[in-house]
Design a protein that fits this description.
By secondary structure, this protein is mainly α. It contains 32 helices and no strands.
Length: about 650
């Protein structure tokens, strides 16, 4: 390389530096300067990197790859980055396996997260975070954010670790949002809603510091709003969730994922209302399908199939379901949706075959077949096959910890008249929970719920002694539930009256003590109470009077011949009062006579017969139309 070429290249680098500061978006001039430098210095790595990055920013990926291939300088990181952008994730990972350095490792973790290998991604991010902590350096906020996202996807029980990490490194809005996602995965929806509101406030504070416009703020908050709408819908606040989703779509956010999820969720909220509008929303979501995760794609295709079924497009719905089964054979969305289509067509045997085929294929992963088994049981109940439905429900993994499924089995057993078997199902479930369950609050509440269901069913079956024992076990675990005490009292009243009376006295004492304590705590209620009235008891007569009353002779009854006692004379009335009295008596007598009179049956009037006993054949014809009718002659002279 001559000194002249070197000096000219230095001048071009200075121009490139000035251009980057003054007009960084001038792609054409930047590429011209890079080409000029590469003509002078063909193997200059800096100039080559600058040109490739410029082409990547201009979204000219094919030309960027050709530029790298044409050069003798190898740029593995930029090549892997371009391959990742063009969707060739496998090729990119193969290059990054040999690449060392933080940038390559970070890109590898991002690609693993993108192709949903979340456990591996979280592991790579975790190693990077430990290296930073070992050097006692401050961790990059983006590294912490990505690690939280990957670990949340990889493990649903990561909530405690996520919370600790957020508290340690500071709760910026990105980390706070990932904490919300971890709470949703753990199904702590109320906590997640509060955290989402806090995340919104953090983002508003950041917007004020960075002087964002309102449109920029709404664009950044789109993902938070969509997640908030999901939580509200799960909490039963359908109207609020719908308003938020409509507002997000009206602002047209730049995030394709936010648009797709919002459109899908809004269609799900509408259910069987506004079907054509919902179909438009789902088509909009399908247009950004490539930006969605596999779980989001499943929901989108499942909702599309169900919506087509609701609109009466059975062929389209069946095709969508069959395609869903082909694309995602591990998912139960396809078989369940296809079962709904076949059920609508009254092809019950075919629907049952589809579900059983899927269940048999997923024999190694029983947890993924729960929805399919429940759908199959429902189908069997509709076909009046309770025995088969019971067998299907009993094969659901972890059925002992699912009270709803347990009670469905009990109801089906009860319908068949097998009460003892139903009670055995509940007792076995209680024994399993006692053996495997922990001593935390959730396990205790689960056991109390099972005991309560078992006791109530035994009470229904008139097994009062067993019901009382079960109620007692539940009361020992939860003494504050009055329904348990009431049920135990009802059972004891049928089998042990003494124990029932003792329980009544105990409960009365507890109620009185609680009432007194409540009044003592609430002074206003105590002052508002009425003054108690003293109960006056009749004084017992002295013993002397009691003896005299016993010795006194009893009064003799009056004889028939004795004179009757004189009646008191009536009070003398005035003339006006006498008239009123007489009028009232007359009115009363008239009412009594009217009531005594029987209603006379009205006689049916028949046509009058001729004196000779022969009926007139023209008796039903109007008189003037009869053959023997003679019109009267007018009077002579007429009317004057």
């Amino acid at each position: 390389m001559s000194g002249k070429n070197y000096n000219e290249a230095v001048k071009l680098f200075k121009e490139l530096d000035v251009l980057d500061k003054e007009d960084p978006d001038n792609t054409k001039k930047t590429l011209t300067l890079c080409d000029s430098i590469l003509k002078l210095l063909p193997d200059n790595e800096d100039a080559l990197k600058c040109k490739v990055v410029c082409l990547i920013n201009a979204n000219r990926m094919d030309q960027a790859i050709k530029t790298i291939d044409a050069s003798a300088v190898q740029l593995p990181f930029l090549r892997a980055y371009i391959l990742n952008k063009t969707g060739k994730h496998g090729d990119a990972l193969a290059i990054l396996e040999k690449e060392e350095g933080d940038h390559g490792t970070h890109l590898r973790a991002q690609i693993l997260h993108k192709i949903e290998r979340h456990s591996e991604s979280a592991e790579v991010y975790g190693k990077m975070l430990k290296q930073v902590e070992a050097k006692k350096e401050e961790a990059d906020p983006e590294l912490i954010c990505n690690y939280l996202a990957a670990s949340t996807y990889a493990n649903k029980d990561q909530l405690e670790a996520t919370t600790a990490l957020v508290n340690k490194h500071g709760a910026v809005y990105d980390n706070s949002f990932n904490l919300c996602c971890a709470m949703i995965e753990a199904y702590k929806l109320k906590d997640a809603l509060e955290q989402l509101k806090e995340t919104e406030n953090m983002m508003r504070d950041a917007a004020q510091q960075q002087e964002w416009t309102e449109d920029q703020l709404q664009d950044e908050m789109a993902c938070i709003q969509v997640q908030k709408a999901f939580v509200l819908r799960q909490l039963g606040k359908k109207a609020e969730a719908e308003d938020i989703l409509v507002n997000v779509l009206n602002h047209k956010p730049s995030s394709s994922q936010a648009i797709g999820v919002a459109s899908n969720n809004l269609a799900a909220i509408h259910e069987d209302q506004d079907l054509f509008d919902s179909m438009k929303k789902l088509k909009a979501a399908m247009s950004v399908e490539s930006k969605l995760t596999s779980k989001q794609k499943q929901s989108l295709k499942y909702n599309t199939a169900l919506l087509q079924l609701m609109m009466g497009k059975k062929d389209a719905a069946r095709s969508a379901c069959e395609q869903l089964i082909v694309d995602m054979p591990q998912s139960d969305f396809g078989p369940v949706a296809l079962c709904a289509v076949l059920q609508k067509e009254k092809k019950f045997a075919k629907a049952e075959e589809v579900l059983k085929t899927y269940i048999n294929k997923q024999a190694g992963d029983a947890n993924s077949t729960i929805r399919a088994r429940l759908t199959l049981a429902q189908l069997q109940v509709q076909q009046n096959q309770p025995v088969n439905a019971i067998q299907t429900l009993q094969q659901v993994p972890g059925v002992e910890t699912k009270p709803g499924i347990l009670m469905a089995i009990v109801q089906l057993q009860s319908k068949l008249g097998k009460h003892d078997e139903a009670i055995k199902v509940l007792d076995d479930a209680i024994a399993t929970v006692k053996k495997t369950g922990g001593k935390d609050k959730h396990a205790t509440n689960q056991l109390v719920a099972l005991l309560k269901q078992s006791a109530n069913y035994k009470l229904t079956c008139k097994k009062y002694k067993e019901a009382a024992e079960t109620f007692e076990q539940a009361t020992q675990l939860n003494n504050s539930d009055h329904a348990l005490k009431s049920g135990r009292l009802t059972a004891l009243a049928h089998c042990d009256c003494d124990a029932a009376e003792a329980l009544v006295k105990q409960l009365s004492k507890v109620v009185d003590e609680k009432k007194i304590q409540r009044l003592m705590d609430d002074s206003d209620a105590l002052e508002a109470m009425p003054t108690p009235k003293p109960q006056v008891q009749k004084r017992a007569p002295p013993p002397q009077e009691v003896e005299k009353a016993k010795q006194a002779p009893a009064a003799e009854p009056s004889s028939p011949t004795s004179q009757p006692q004189a009646k008191p004379s009536p009070q003398k009335l005035s003339k006006k009062q006498e008239k009123k009295r007489l009028a009232a008596e007359q009115a009363k007598e008239a009412d009594e006579k009217a009531a005594q009179k029987k209603k006379k049956k009205k006689k049916t009037r028949h046509p009058v017969a001729n004196p000779d006993g022969k009926a007139d054949p023209e008796r039903w014809i109007p008189y003037k139309e009869r053959s023997y009718y003679k019109k009267q002659k007018p009077q002579r002279g007429g009317r004057r």
